Amino acid sequence: MKTLMRKAEDLKKKWYIIDAEGKILGRMASKIATVLRGKNKADFTPHVDMSDHIVVVNAGKVCVTGKKMKDKIYQYVSGYPSGQKSYNLQTMLKNKPDEVIRRAVRGMLPHNTLGRKMLKRLKVYAEATHPHQEQKLEELKV
Description:
This protein is an alpha/beta fold. Helices cover 29% and strands 18% of the residues.
């Protein structure tokens, strides 16, 4: 029996929507990473981009457990001397709520060109409005 290997052009891409209000960040990010990777499909092929499009709304209203709001640190280094900047989760949710979800999902995807291609199919918005009304969005349970 031969192993079936899917090709990227044979796949049909779906569009999903997730409302992040009241959802736990890590659990939601792992579900998003699974769908972006294509592992929810029966014919999963590891070397093919099988990802569907995911739209996340209300990113600023995501929840975390424990003391992560003050203890979780995001770091950025500009490359210049004294160029390291640190922000906690509370500050990031106030300034860039879409970046919090994007970084959580990026850490769960492969760290190569295929993972970067998958991450482009993730659309994150801080509010409930989004420009993807024309696509047939299906609700994704988290």
